[in-house]
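Quarterly update from the structural biology core.
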Amino acid sequence: MDETKLGTTLLNYLCVDKTQNEAMSTERVAIVRDTTKPVCKLNGSAKVTHEAGFAYKDHGCVCHDSYQGKLTPVITNNVNIDLQGTYVSACNAQDASGNKATTVSRTIVIADTLKPVIALSSGQQIITSSDASDTSTLADDTAVSNPAGEKFKKYDAMLWGV
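Predicted structure, tokenized:
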């Protein structure tokens, strides 16, 4: 009997003693079943931080079954790259015998970690500092103030609280 092949095998037992006396033959049915779960393993880290607003592609996982070998994993996630937060990507597989692997999961933290880049435009001119020589294209140069009370002209580029 081949114990590596799944299924049912009919076994016939026949015994003969030294003097060639035969016992009554006996038949047995042997069933080889796959009751072992597949195993899944993540590719990459179990926790990743990803920049908000940029496309996310999961690193996936690999799943292996003792009888079938490599299985195609099922990966599910609800990652929203436009909403900062913590998300979970889950990986699982099932073999032909119906055995389900233990789910492995990855935690994905979507975070905004990039500092903003500030530039003001006036007509065709890009103004990045307060020493711009052509202020005639601006609608007005009304002074504004930051939370510290410092005054700046409208065309100054200031960013505070970052």
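Residues 130-146, 152-162 have pLDDT under 50 and may be disordered.
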